[in-house]
Specification:
By secondary structure, the chain is an alpha+beta fold. The chain contains 71 helices and 28 strands. Helix 56 packs across helix 64.
Length: 1899
């Protein structure tokens, strides 16, 4: 037989042989034996032949292409059994004849793997521990995480996006301390060596199997046609191959031994060669080989169209560098004509499409250019994995092998070899997102390992390949840049609209690059390789200037492009992150060389860029790009060089000309930001605002605005200050505004933008001069400053702070969020505010708020301005600062932003301060101070604030060398410039300026003035001229010299250019007299001369007067207190407004020079004349009036709003307060008082008040809702926990609802149905609860209100069709109106002292009143509006709950049902009120709802309806209670089903039936009478239940004891006597006979002492007393007394009139003393007991059960949740649903009963209701509270609406973590859970939660 099988392949006609199946094992055993022989050739051939046949390659695909009988014997050709058959064979052969499972177990025993290596796919929940991770990508599976010890570590849980693998056991990626117990480094020594024969068969079988798989993959691949996407075919092939790949995957899971065999097979080149080539004769194999070659075609980087000449490729093999130049140099169109490859269908767009890229010749590895060559199975498998776009199963298989070290190295090299091909496939893919994830899933496992990355870099040119591939990828989407010089620009940039950028397709490659750059050894190689740096800068320059914005000047753009997202993402990911990666390796002196390299090539690239865009010195107007990555690289490396590497800054700075060019574009961005915020770009749409905001946003700012500002600071510190300052004002377009004249013409700016642009320019200067982020602050200081700025804007949660603090985007930077320094700085600057819960308020989170000393000393407005994305945040910070000053009493008014001292400048940047000491700036400051003083238009307080800030900065940073003599010696020479003598601010401050010549429009007021006579030669006399007549002779001394910023800047530029080109500096300053005008300005300007006669000091002093509104308000403080000059830091000057600022500046000026001090004193001595009122032209007046009018209107509006708010507030306080004391306001229902007048109601719609009448009834706004809260009470005080293990389960049969259900169905089994339905109450589940907000309205008004709501198109949160509305006054949710019964609310006679009718008379009266029934319907005959409304509200009440909660009778639709339902509604509402009071009435007082109770009205409605049903007088329970029946036996026999015995009836239900069937209003005495009668029954029930509960001996003892006392005077009021009576009566039946063994209500028979019996009886009676007291309170008014818990019984009894008043004697109180028997007890008790005993004759076993009623219910509670959320999450998130047995996508659990449900799961849908909605109806009668497992939030379903409630689990910082995004450990917040439970119990979800939406049954 063996020969037959192993012989030549059977002919194909042979039928399938069944014996094969039986004998697979035998064959395998035989082959194994054959192969074990030393000479195993024969065996090997036999095996080959067998495999050849079994694994015939065509089989699956023949079927895929159309079935049919396939070639190759063994098994039916296309039959579905074929693959299974092949797999079976393989399993058998591997096992070598044994069982496959035993084989697996045997192999596993030899598993030496110390790595976990578990591979997971997307959406898997994994953990990351930053404390244990070496690589930032480290991740652990949940099992390893929980088995390791990570207490106190910084870890989080996350949902894997791309998939991953567990790193436990891999010491390259994580620290060994974090390994779990299973992977704590097993030494491989204790693993025995693998026996040779165990895996011998595998070594033979697997190569064939894998080759067979490869053949399938070749076969299945068809080169896709250009237009038809081929995914469908690919998926089909993959589905067919599923089992094979799964088989391989299972093999990898057998552990290390099997993996090493697989590695051997996959990497063995000989195997591959033999199998691939040795198939020449097989046609099928040939075909598949051809397909393989076709597929390989496009796999190199060199595209067909890149061949310059046809034969280029052939010669290329030898000369790699030539080929590189060749493929890159295809600038000619010839290359593009033939764009056949579908790679590049848009390739023919234009010549500029491809750019000549100088690829470094260091791409030594030619392989990346050429077609791939495969040498092993592994290589070809990876090739097909890529071709098929990374099928998940293949990826998992390849990753599962990684724990094998040899495989890991081989696979990494193969991956690198295929890198270019991966990029090409990715670009073509239609599913690039999925594919990206799969690529990263693999690469992150390979490149996170530093050792491996280093090895591949060295051996496979990894860096070259990556950079080249990235460059190539971007090549395909380049367009010509339009920046600067559109026609002649040679620069190309990426086009952000391309899919490649829009869809982020590049991110897998970029993220790999960032990943390998994080390894020091790899980054070093990169930084040392000049060729690579050049290439990389080339790559970066593709992004330089992308997404150019052009300002729209005429129309609004039609289409707002959103490409800016792509641009910002690209710069951050592709440029900035690699930059941060490189920077992290340039931290120490030794790395100086690297920085020099980067800076050098960066500058070269910048120079190329300037040349390419033809940039000279002026930026093109009206365009801006936010993307200057080259500038930012340069800036960041400069900063690093100075900060960490001690490099000399000047050695790496370029010449002045280059600096001038460098500064232009970053400055352009700053000016554009200002323009955008001034609304000058509105026509470009919202997206431009979006760009401005993204540029400064926390994730981008330190890669964008920070380097830009730093670069500008560097330029400013090295360039001529006058040049820099004038450039700034020119860029901001406010040059024309800086004139002394009151009017001017601005040629480039509309006047409405002038003010904000000027503010922008000054603010920019302040930021530039005071920001120290890169100029000397340490990392901790930076962190502190950032944190303070964020906290000052708003209180922040911990996570939002982490998010807002810009951190180095490269994850390995070491500044890890949540790191030690973060926490310590946070605790230093902020206080934690724990979350507070106002009931009804929004759920607050734990917040951090700045400490007082931070406001006092560290609040830095400059930093705040720099970091605000929204301008309103600056205001918010100032408001908070103001509030702090008011509160701490430091400053009462409106303060100005405080001036903050700066950290000292790093010496390299000292030059920056020259900006503060240059004449240009001083002229600007002087001009602005003058203009503000003279009230010129377009200036603001903000401008003044910034001007003063600059002056103060100048004084703080003044150069030391100011000599203090009277007058500089060379006065004449120094003063040759007419404005200021020198450049030092300290001395320039006191310099007086007399006359200024200005250019003004002819209409200006200045023109008419004659120049004063003295404008001759001494026009510019200085202050001293009065004392020393020294006239300054000038060449043009006619008038004041004028100064032009623009001319000045041009001149400086010229000078620098000349100096650079080596010419002598011969340029004499031309004296321009063109004051501030831009070239080409309008001609009709005339020149006027202004008399000024001010210095900066005098202007400041006058400004002080102006700000204070008083003359001479400034008095130099040192005149009184010389101390001030010695210790200048005076707290009084720290905080304050403009006056404080001026005082502070003057003090500093005085301190710095004695001369200034003297001049200040001098100025103050002269009494200053009042500032002249400014002459305003009529137009100005108009605008001013308009402004004033607006202001006044605004104030009026504010006042009105405030008044309205306070009114609303006071209303809210009175109407909405839950526990407010009763306040008498007209709106509420009149409080019960001694009033004879009718009740008066206010209608909140029409505002009229009056009584409710039959014709025009008034109603209460109510909300009816079905509720099962009562049903959730349990009889244990032990809380129910949410199950978190399989063992814990919740059984619902101890709930109140279940107990009542059982009782009712028991009664219905044995007694007459109609009588059963009056013996109990329903409504424990699905009862209707009625609540009101207390407001009333006319019912007709309400109808019109509803009508208007119906026509209102606005989307409401409620459904008007269902009758829902919100109360017109307080907006509380409601859905019905409860009519108020006309007449007085309260019966008047009730307060008269008790009438002296005897008990018997009263009983008779009650009976008569009940008899009246049929005769006395409340005016139903004459249908009035009132009765109609009552009917309709009754319908509403009925329809509120589901049918199943109202139908309990055996005969559907019987009137008994309605009767039961109606009195149960009353019961439900009373019981719920009891629960809201805490389950007892000890607290007393009015109803909790106080004025908001509607029970009185509800009773009227119910009573009216109940009295339509008559109770047959024969069955009236009243008779049974108050009269002795004659002939009891006869009555019992004639009925087939008896009535329910009175002892089984629920007394509270009887009470309600009695009350509600009597005519209203009821008399108090009748009420008391009914209560007394019912109490006797209740007491008897208590005794009966007690008798059942105690043991036989006790019963006998009491029986005797009672008989002794029987004849005492008060026998009827002694429980002993009565108990003995009950026992003796009941023992007549079979009641006590059986069942001594199973003690029914008693677990352990306790010894009953008289005390405990008394206590038991009181407890039994209390629930009834509470209900009766509440009822009395609602019907008759009167407060409930409050008391201690132990006296509750007595207090309630006396309140109900059960306790005779004389009973307060010395006797110990007994409950029996309350009894008042209507018929002697010895007569009536036997009658009652007889009913029970006669029942016990027939059904003995049920008697006791029915006698013992459960009286003690605990309050309803939600399930108790575990402390830590992880407990819930780990149990439920993988749990399968019991209905559909799948793991739900959105699992949820009900917090009321613990049921596990699928949220939104279509799997569990029933009749269009999804499972949660269904459950909410079954469990909570329409209210469901669900915890969403995957989101940690709670969702509330209420009827047809739902809302997200929030989370009851918070992290250590008091924050929610919705959707578990942060994955931090969460802990239960008990307060929140209490709030949730409170809202559930009090039914206030609808009122408190505001965000409701319809769920359309889809949850």
């Amino acid at each position: 037989m063996a020969a037959a099988v192993g012989g030549p392949p059977a002919p194909q006609s042979e039928p399938p042989r069944p014996e094969l199946g039986r004998d697979k094992a035998a064959t395998a055993a035989h082959l194994k034996a054959a192969l074990s022989r030393p000479d195993n050739r024969a065996g090997a051939e036999e095996l080959q032949a067998l495999l050849e046949r079994v694994l015939s390659a065509e089989r699956p695909l023949a079927r895929a292409e159309g079935g049919g009988e396939a070639a190759g014997g063994g098994g039916g050709g296309g039959g579905p059994g074929a693959e299974e058959e092949a797999l079976e064979w393989c399993k058998c052969l591997l096992a070598g004849g044994g069982g496959y499972d035993e084989f697996c177990a045997a192999v596993r025993a030899y598993d030496p793997a110390a790595l976990c290596g578990l591979v997971w796919t997307a959406n898997f929940v994994a953990y990351r521990c930053r404390t244990c991770g070496i690589s930032p990508c480290m991740s652990l599976c949940a099992e390893c995480f929980h088995q390791g010890d990570h207490t106190g570590h910084d870890f989080n849980m996350f949902r894997s996006q791309a998939g991953g693998a567990c790193d436990c056991g891999d010491s390259n990626v994580m620290r060994e301390s974090g390994f779990c117990k299973r992977h704590q480094i097993k030494s491989s020594s204790n693993i025995p060596c693998v026996p040779k024969d165990l895996l011998m068969m595998s070594e033979f079988v697997l190569p064939r199997f894998i080759f067979c798989l490869i053949q399938y993959l070749r076969e299945g691949y068809n080169e896709p046609a250009v237009d038809v996407p081929s995914e469908k075919d690919l998926h089909k092939v993959l589905q067919l191959l599923g089992p094979q790949i799964s088989f391989l995957e299972d093999l990898t899971k057998m552990g290390g031994a099997m993996r090493s065999v697989l590695t051997q097979v996959l990497t063995n080149q000989q195997n591959y060669k033999d199998l691939s080539s040795g198939l020449g004769e097989n046609a099928c194999a040939k075909k598949s080989h051809e397909k393989y070659l076709i597929a390989l075609k496009g796999s190199g980087l060199a595209f067909p169209e890149d061949k310059l000449t046809c034969g280029m490729q052939d010669q290329a093999a030898g000369t790699s560098s030539l080929a590189v130049a060749g493929f890159a140099g295809a600038t000619g169109t010839s290359g593009q004509v033939d764009s056949s490859d579908e790679e590049d269908q848009d390739g023919g767009q234009g010549v500029g499409k491809r750019k000549r890229v100088k690829l470094s010749s260091s791409v030594k590895d030619q392989s990346i250019m050429d077609v791939l060559k495969h040498k092993s199975f592994l290589e070809e498998l990876l090739f097909w994995t890529i071709k098929y776009e990374f099928p998940q199963k293949m990826v998992t298989f390849l990753l599962n092998m990684l724990p094998d070290q040899d495989y890991k190295i081989a696979f990494t090299k193969t991956f690198v070899q295929h890198y270019a091909f991966i990029m090409k496939t990715l670009k073509k893919s239609h599913e690039s997102d999925t594919m990206s994830n799969r690529i990263v899933h693999i690469s992150v496992q390979l490149f996170s390992n530093e050792e491996l990355a280093r090895q591949v870099t060295e051996e496979c040119q990894l860096l070259d390949i990556m950079v080249t591939v990235l460059l190539y990828m971007m090549e395909s989407c380049l367009i010509k840049s339009e920046l600067q010089d559109e026609e002649n620009s040679l620069h190309v940039v990426v086009n952000c609209g391309e899919a490649l950028l829009k869809n982020n397709t590049y991110w897998p490659l970029v993220s790999d690059f960032i990943n390998i750059l994080s390894h020091q050894s790899v980054a070093k190689k990169f930084l040392e390789d000049h060729g690579l740096l050049v290439t990389w800068m080339n790559f970066v320059s593709f992004f330089q200037g992308m997404n150019l914005n052009k300002r729209e000047l005429n129309e609004h753009v039609e289409f707002e492009s959103q490409t800016y997202y792509a641009a910002f993402a690209a710069e951050l990911e592709a440029c900035a992150q690699p930059m941060w990666g490189l920077l992290s390796h340039c931290k120490i002196r030794e790395t100086q060389e690297y920085t020099r390299n980067v800076v050098r090539y960066c500058l070269e690239a910048l120079q190329d860029w300037f040349d390419a865009i033809n940039f000279v010195d002026e930026p093109a107007p009206n365009q801006v790009t936010f993307h200057l990555p080259l500038h930012r690289y340069y800036a960041m490396f400069l900063s690093k060089a100075v900060k960490c590497q001690e490099l000399d800054l000047d050695s790496i700075l370029p010449d002045q000309e280059m600096l001038m060019k460098l500064m232009i574009h970053p400055l352009q961005i700053q000016a554009s930001l200002s323009e955008i915020h001034s609304n000058m770009w509105v026509r470009n749409g919202l997206q431009i605002k979006g760009q401005a905001m993204t540029y400064v946003q926390s994730h981008f700012c330190n890669s964008m605005i920070d380097p830009d500002i730093y670069l500008l600071q560097v330029c400013a510190s090295r360039l001529d200050p006058d040049y820099f300052i004038s450039s700034v004002f020119e860029r901001f377009k406010v040059v024309d505004l800086l004139t002394m004249a009151s009017q001017h013409q601005n040629t480039i700016l509309d006047s409405e933008h002038e003010r904000s642009m000027l503010e922008g320019a000054l603010t920019f200067l302040v930021i530039l001069l005071s920001l120290r982020l890169h100029l000397g602050m340490t990392d901790d200081e930076i962190l502190r400053a950032e944190m303070v700025a964020q906290l000052c804007m708003n209180d922040r949660t911990h996570s939002s702070l982490l998010d807002l603090i810009p951190e180095n985007p490269n994850p390995k930077s070491g500044i890890i969020p949540g790191s030690y320094s973060f926490e310590s700085v946070l605790s230093a600057v902020a206080d934690f505010k724990a979350p507070v819960f106002e009931p009804g308020g929004s759920m607050q989170q734990g917040m951090y708020t700045p400490k007082a000393e931070v406001w006092d000393k560290e609040f830095d407005p400059v930093m705040v301005i720099l970091r605000t994305v929204y301008r309103r945040d600056v205001q918010s910070a100032m408001d908070r600062y103001t509030a702090f000053l008011k509160q701490s009493g430091k400053f009462p008014g409106n303060p100005w932003p405080p001036y903050k001292k700066r950290t000292p400048l790093h010496p390299s940047y000292k030059g920056l301060m020259r900006l503060l000491h240059c004449k240009t700036l001083h002229i600007v400051l002087f001009t602005l101070l003058y203009k503000i003083l003279m009230d010129h238009q377009n200036l603001s307080e903000h401008v003044l604030c910034m001007v003063l800030y600059l002056i103060e900065l100048g004084l703080e940073n003044s150069p030391e060398e100011e000599p203090d003599e009277e007058e500089p010696v060379g006065g004449q020479e120094r003063c040759h410039d007419s404005w200021f003598p020198g450049s030092n601010l300290v001395s320039n401050m006191r310099h007086f300026i007399n006359y200024v010549r200005v250019r003004v429009p002819e209409t200006a007021p200045e023109v008419k003035r004659e120049p004063p006579a003295s404008t001759s030669s001494d026009s510019f006399a200085s202050t001293q001229s009065s004392r020393r007549p020294k006239v300054l002779q000038r060449e043009n001394s006619g008038t004041a010299q004028v100064f032009s910023l623009v001319a000045e800047r041009r001149k400086k530029f010229q000078e620098i250019i000349n100096r650079n080109s080596g010419e002598a500096n011969q340029v004499v300053r031309p004296k321009t007299s063109n004051k501030w005008s831009a070239p080409g300005s309008t001609p009709q300007l005339t020149t006027a001369i202004l008399e000024i006669k001010e210095s900066i000091l005098s202007l400041l002093i006058k400004l002080h007067h102006k700000l204070s509104g008083k003359q001479n308000s400034y008095y130099p403080p040192w005149l009184d207190d010389l101390e001030i000059l010695i210790q200048p830091e005076i707290p009084k000057y720290c905080h304050g407004d403009g006056m404080t600022a001026v005082e502070r500046i003057l003090l500093k000026a005085a301190l710095q020079s004695r001369l200034n001090k003297r001049i200040i004193e001098e100025i103050c001595r002269k009494v200053t004349p009042p500032v002249p009122p400014k002459k305003t032209s009529s137009t100005e007046k108009k605008t001013l009036d308009k402004e004033e009018r607006r202001q006044k209107a605004r104030e009026r509006q504010q006042k009105l709003l405030a008044e309205f708010a306070s009114r609303q507030k006071s209303f809210m306080e009175t109407a909405m307060d839950v526990d407010s004391p009763e306040t008498d306001i007209a709106m509420e229902i009149v409080t019960p008082e001694q009033q004879v007048s009718e009740a008066v109601y206010d209608c909140v719609i029409c505002g009229q008040s009056g009584p409710s009448s039959e014709e025009r009834p008034t109603g209460l706004v109510v909300l009816l809702q079905a509720s099962s809260v009562l049903g959730q009470c349990r009889n244990t005080t032990e809380p129910k926990k949410l199950p978190t293990t399989e063992e814990e389960q919740i059984y619902p049969w101890d709930t109140c609802a279940a107990v009542h259900d059982v009782r009712l169905s028991l009664l219905q089994r044995f007694f007459k149905d109609s009588s059963c339905l009056q013996a109990v109450s329903i409504g424990w589940e699905g009862g209707v609860y009625v609540q009101t907000c207390g407001h009333t309205l006319h019912i007709d008004c309400h109808k019109s209100y509803m009508e208007s709501l119906r026509n209102d198109q606005v989307l409401q949160g409620f459904s008007v069709e269902k009758g829902e509305f919100t109360c017109p006054l307080c907006r509380q949710f409601a859905n019905s109106v409860l009519p108020c019964y006309p007449g007085n609310n309260v019966e008047n006679s009730l307060w008269q002292c008790h009438s002296n009718k005897s008990m018997q008379e009263l009983i008779k009266e009650v009976e008569e009143l009940q008899e009246q029934l049929g005769i006395f319907p409340v005016s139903i005959s004459s249908e009035t509006n009132l009765s109609k409304e009552m009917e309709s509200v009754m319908k509403d009440i009925k329809s509120t709950t589901q049918k199943k909660y109202t139908d309990y009778s055996k005969t559907p639709g019987s009137p008994d049902n309605d009767f039961l339902f109606m009195y149960s509604v009353a019961r439900t509402n009373l019981e719920l009120e009891l629960i809201h009071r805490g389950g007892n009435l000890c607290s007393g007082g009015a109803s909790t709802a106080g004025k908001r109770s509607c029970l009185n009205q509800l009773f009227h409605v119910l009573a009216m309806h109940m009295r339509l049903y008559s109770i047959d007088s024969a069955y009236n329970p009243w008779k049974k209670l108050t009269q002795l029946m004659q002939d009891m036996n006869s009555q019992l026999c004639n009925e087939e089903q008896p009535e329910v015995p009175v002892l089984y009836r629920d007394v509270s239900s009887l009470l309600l039936i009695q009350i509600l069937t009597m005519p209203q209003p009821l008399h108090k005495e009748h009420f008391t009478c009914i209560v007394k009668v019912l109490f006797t029954l209740l007491y008897t029930q208590a005794l009966a239940a007690l008798s059942v509960k105690c043991s036989e001996e006790d019963r006998l003892a009491w029986k005797d004891l009672g008989t002794l006392k029987k004849n005492t005077c008060s026998a009827e009021k002694s429980w002993e006597v009565l108990l003995s009576l009950v026992i003796s009566e009941l023992s007549k039946g079979k009641l006590y006979l059986e069942g001594e063994t199973e003690e029914l209500g008693m677990v352990n028979p306790i010894a009953w002492s008289p005390d405990s019996i008394e206590r038991y009886l009181q407890q039994f009676c209390l629930p009834f007393l509470r209900i009766a007291s509440l009822l009395q309170h609602h019907l008759f008014g009167g407060d409930l007394p409050s008391c201690q818990e132990e006296e509750e019984f007595t207090v309630l009894a006396s309140c109900l009139g059960l306790l005779p008043s004389f009973s307060q004697t010395t006797h110990p109180f007994t409950s029996a003393s309350c009894l008042d028997w209507p018929v002697p007890a010895f007569d009536i008790i036997p009658q009652w007991c007889f009913e029970v005993t006669s029942f016990s004759e027939r059904h003995a076993e049920q008697v006791k059960v029915l006698l013992i009623q459960e009286s003690k219910w605990d309050l309803p509670h939600l399930l108790q949740l575990p402390e830590n959320y992880n407990t819930i999450f780990q149990y439920y998130h993988r749990k399968t649903c019991s209905v559909c047995t799948k793991v739900p996508k959105d699992p949820a659990v009900c917090l009321v009963c613990g049921t596990f449900v699928c949220l939104k799961g279509l799997c569990c849908k029933q009749q269009s209701y999804c499972e949660c909605v269904l459950h909410s109806q079954n469990c909570g009668a329409g209210t469901g509270i669900f915890l969403l497992i995957n989101a940690s939030v709670i969702i509330i379903i209420r009827g047809h609406r739902f809302c997200l409630w929030g989370s009851v689990y918070l992290d250590a910082h008091g924050e929610e973590d919705r959707d578990l995004r942060r994955g931090k450990p969460l802990y239960i917040c008990k307060e929140r859970y209490k709030v949730l439970e409170q809202q559930w119990v009090s039914h206030t979800f609808d009122h408190i939660n505001k965000r409701w939406g319809p769920h359309y049954n889809g949850l």
